[in-house]
Structure formats: C-alpha cells, structure tokens
Amino acid sequence: MAYAPFNLKGKVALVTGGNRGIGFGMAEALAQAGADVVIWGSNADYNTAAEGKLTGYGVRVKAQQVNVADETAVAEGMEEAVAAMGRVDTVIANAGIGGGAPSFAEFSTETYRRVLSVNLDGVFFTFREACKHMIERSKAGDPGGSIVVTSSLSAISGAARNEAYASTKGAVISMIKAIAVEHARYGVRANAILPGWIATDMTQGAQDSPAFAEKVIPRVPARRWGEPADFGGIAVYLASDASKYHSGDSFVIDGGYSIF
Questions:
Q1: How wide is the angle at C-alpha 132 spanned by C-alphas 26 and 81, nearest 5°?
Q2: 165 among known catalytic residues
Q3: Separation CA 150–CA 84 (nearest Å)
Q4: Which position among 3, 57, 165, 245 bears the catalytic label?
C-alpha cells in the first residue's frame, strides 16, 4: 500500500483570514491536497474571489464573512461551518492586523486595544469554539483535530515600535502550548507557525522601501521575500495524518533570517 498521509480527501480545514496573503496560500494548498475548505474573512469581495479560485480545485468551499474580534460572530460562524461541512478537522487562526507607533512612548491605547482584539482575542474565540467541536467529536468516538496559529518572528525577536503586535504573537504561542497539553487526550494537536518577512498587504510599506530592500532582505539567506505559497507545505503537513504525533511546536518559516 502506498504511503499517502498527505492526502486530505475527506478532511475539512477552516482558515481565518483565508481570503488573501498567507491565509490564502495555506487554503489553496489544502484544497489542492483534497481538503474541503472554509475561509473566514471580513471583506465580502475578497471572500468571493478566494472562494471562486478554491472551488476550481474540485473540493467543497465555503466562505464566511466573520469578524474574529466579535465573540458572538465567531461562535455562530463555527456552528455554521460545522453544519455546512459536517465537521471541521483543522482550524488555522491566521487572521491578524498590524498596528505600530512612531515610538513605544507614543503608542496609543486605542491602537493597542485594536491589535489585541483581533490578534489575541480573535485567536482565543476561534480556538475555544474549535476545541468545543473537536471534544464533542472525540466523545462521540471520532477523535482527532489540528489547531494551528499564525504567529510571527516578532514573538521571539525585538520588534521595535510594534509592542502590541509582538505581544499578541508571543501570547498565542503560549496559548497553543496550553491547548496542546489539555487536548492531547482527545487526539487534538496544536502548533504555531512563525513567518519571517513575507510579501503580503501587511508588509507593503516595507516592500516599497528602498532602505528595507537594501538593508534587510539581503540578510535573508534565501535572498528574497517569502511568499504566501511558501506556507502551503506546512499547512498540509499540520492538517494531515503525518503530523498526528506532533504537537506543541513552533515552526519558523523565514528563509533562514532568524539564524543569520
């Protein structure tokens, strides 16, 4: 019999912020590997475009307009996703926003609260609902599930003028470890992904900066910006049976930047 743990046929993956950027890169790979996909995004037009592309891979796709910072919207969104798809095997909390300041001393409370509401509260709400579903399935004799968060290198490095963002990205790693320990008995594993410098809408300002191109990107051993498609492999691995004994880990995907 051929070894085929990366075949995701019959599995359902939900990706928040899955309508563009890293989230879409992961959702696309999951669909190509055979998974049915649910994407959450706050922009209806981006959702529609992403849904159309993913449907082209011959899998079931559902796009939902969900604001992850809204606790009620998350609970209702997860219930709707499970009802439509029958189950959810993998949940990737990828939705996030940036938000910095000229200096820490000038950091506004409004920005701080806004960043935390999406990047931390949103992850908490999403994972809490996902774990409820996975625990219920396990108790019904159908254990298993994968919880994944998109963190950031800012969680383990000094992100000057981005203290709020960095704080959320460090916090979700701790959340993942707690979920991994508590839910292993249900066959649920939990892991984090830490992207480096990736070409997305969030990093457009840096991409347009000649100084950044001259001083930062040459320090990436891979000598290029990362791309959303670079996250397809890790998404498929973490959604697949190949990772069923891999939990509580953090995957750095940065072209070697953090070790150079």
A1: 50
A2: yes
A3: 25
A4: 165
